[in-house]
């Protein structure tokens, strides 16, 4: 197998995680890692099977996924529209960009005390935290992407008689799309980080609720299982984002499959 073919093999990216899991299992079986501190992969899998059989696993994964999707949709839409308006209309940029940048520097998880006062500990609070966390990465990348579109292409489009809408759909948006998709991939990671924290605060369902309950009863296998679930959901989200990149940027040689 040629060198490039080996790197492009679908198994290659999973070699390091597989080695880590095997090493983790071996160290656990040799009691070099105590199960009370870090359960072995087999124990974590057994916990997952047990919760799956009771239906608790599916229910909590569904609840967390729903919160993540709603929060991402709201925050992503707001961030995209703000980036779009500020990137294309100078008046909006002068009016709002400085204020947005000031708010962006505030860690959104530091708003938790205020969010609890505003929304309580219900679904609205969790979705709000996710939306705020998602909004800024998408905003800054959309804004930056539009600003960095080659002005020569825009001028060429004007010379060919393109309308403003045609300029936007054929030149500005495609040119900004790589940056926008980078913002989406980054925001997806922020989504799950925000949700982890949000679900440990007075939640009655979700993966974070599972982790909090398991911690109180010292069920380390379930605690580790929740961490693995967040990792899997995050990886799945990133995989979907990469598929979108390949589809929306197939005109760009850098995003084509080798």
What is the terminal-to-terminal distance?
Answer: 15 Å
Low-confidence stretches: none
Order of helices and strands: HHHHHHHHHHH
Shape: globular
Q: Using DSSP, what is the number of strands?
A: 0
Q: How much of the polypeptide forms β-strand, as a percent range? A: under 5%
Helix content: over 70%
CATH fold description:
MetI-like fold
How would you describe this structure to a colleague?
The structure is a single chain. This protein has 258 residues and is mainly α. The protein has one domain: Orthogonal Bundle (MetI-like fold), CATH 1.10.3720. The protein has helices spanning 3-8, 15-29, 41-54, 56-88, 90-104, 112-119, 123-147, 151-159, 164-199, 207-216, 220-248. It starts with a helix and ends in a 10-residue tail after the last helix. Keywords: Cell membrane, Membrane, Transmembrane, Transmembrane helix, Transport. It comes from Oceanobacillus sojae. This is Sulfonate ABC transporter.
């Amino acid at each position: 197998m040629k060198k490039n073919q080996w790197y492009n093999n679908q198994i290659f990216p999973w070699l390091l995680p597989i080695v880590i899991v095997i090493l983790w299992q071996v160290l656990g079986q040799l009691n070099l890692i105590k199960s009370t501190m870090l359960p072995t992969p087999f124990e974590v899998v057994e916990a997952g099977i047990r919760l799956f059989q009771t239906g608790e696993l599916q229910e909590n994964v569904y609840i967390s996924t729903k919160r993540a999707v709603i929060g991402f949709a709201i925050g992503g839409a707001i961030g995209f529209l703000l980036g779009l308006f500020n990137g294309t209309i100078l008046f909006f940029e002068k009016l709002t960009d400085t204020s947005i940048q000031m708010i962006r520097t505030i860690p959104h998880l530091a708003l938790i005390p205020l969010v609890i006062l505003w929304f309580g500990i219900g679904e609205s609070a969790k979705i709000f935290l996710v939306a705020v966390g998602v909004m800024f990465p998408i905003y800054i990348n959309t804004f930056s992407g539009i600003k960095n579109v080659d002005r020569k292409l825009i001028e060429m489009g004007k010379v060919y008689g393109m309308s403003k809408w045609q300029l936007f759909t054929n030149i500005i948006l495609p040119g900004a799309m790589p940056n926008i998709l980078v913002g989406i991939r980054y925001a997806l990671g922020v989504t799950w980080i925000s949700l982890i924290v949000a679900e440990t605060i007075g939640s009655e369902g979700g993966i974070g609720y599972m982790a909090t309950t398991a911690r109180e009863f010292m069920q380390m296998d379930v605690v580790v299982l929740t961490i693995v679930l967040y990792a899997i959901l995050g990886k799945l989200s990133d995989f979907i984002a990469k598929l979108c990149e390949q589809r929306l940027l197939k005109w760009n040689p850098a995003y084509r499959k080798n």
